C-alpha cells in the first residue's frame, strides 16, 4: 500500500486564509490542483496495484464514486487498454469474471463496497480509498490509499476527482496540463449567476457522461436543487422538453452539432467551454489555454453547486439526510 501524509489545508496565493472565508467543501474544492498532481505521482508509485494493459476490468463504487468509475471505464477503453465496465457496487453481476475489479470508496466503510470485496476474496481487487485504516483495506488484494485527498465534508469533491486523476495517470495520461486547468477553474468567475437559475441539466459524451451525472448530483446534494444529467446525444430525445428561460444546460466535453442552437431556441442558458460566451474570460485566466479539460470544468460545476446552496440559505457542509458514508444495518 502506498500512503502519503494528508493535506492539512489548501492555500491559494493572494487569497486570505481559506478557513476564514470558506466552508469545508470550498477549501477542499480549492485544493484539487495539488491533489491531482499528487495523485499522478502516486499512480507511478502504485503501478503494480492498478489495472494492467489488456486486463478485463470492472470498476465499482456508490454515488459519486460510481460516476468516476463510469468516466474511467470510458477513458480506459478509448485508450485501448482493454474492456472496462462500470457498476454501482450493489449491481455488480455475480458470476461474471474479470481479471481485476477496482473499487472506489472515500471512507472505506460503504456497505455495498465491503460486501462486494468480501464476495470477491481470492480475486485481484484494487481499492482506491481515502482512509488507510478503514475496513475495506483488509479486503482488497491491492489497496491504494489517498489520505491527502480525504475530506471532512459530506459532499465529495476532491477525493472523487483525485481518484479519477490517479486512474487517468495509470493509463498513461500526462496530467500536468489538466492540473494547470484546475488552477484556472478554482479561480475563474462562474459562468452563470446561481440566483438566476431555477433548474440545471448537465450533459456529457463518452467519458464525460459520468462527469455530467456527478455535476448534477453535486447540485442535488449541496443545494437540494433540481438537476438532471443525460448523454448529450440523448438530450433531444425528451429531456429538452423542460428547457426554458431561467433554466441551464451545461455540457462537458464534445457536444453534438446543433445542440447549442437547439438549447438557445428554448430560452435556456447554455454553458460549454468551447462555445459559450460566458467562457470568454477564460482566456485571461488560462493564458490562452482553452478549452479546459472536462475534469477541470467539473470544478466549476462543484463551485456552482456550493454557490447555489449559499444563495438558497443552505449550509453546503450539512446537506439534508446525508452522512459521509452509507453504512447499512
From TrEMBL:
Domain SIS intervals: 47-185
One of the GO biological process terms: carbohydrate derivative metabolic process
Matching CDD domains: SIS_GlmS_GlmD_1, SIS_GlmS_GlmD_2
Keywords for the protein's UniProt record, in alphabetical order: Isomerase, Repeat
Positions of transmembrane segments: none
Listed GO MF terms: carbohydrate derivative binding; isomerase activity
Coiled coil: none
Matches recorded under InterPro entries: GlmS/AgaS_SIS, GlmS/FrlB_SIS, SIS_dom, SIS_dom_sf
Superkingdom, natural source: Bacteria
Name recorded for this polypeptide: Fructoselysine-6-P-deglycase FrlB with duplicated sugar isomerase (SIS) domain
Species of the source: Micromonospora pattaloongensis
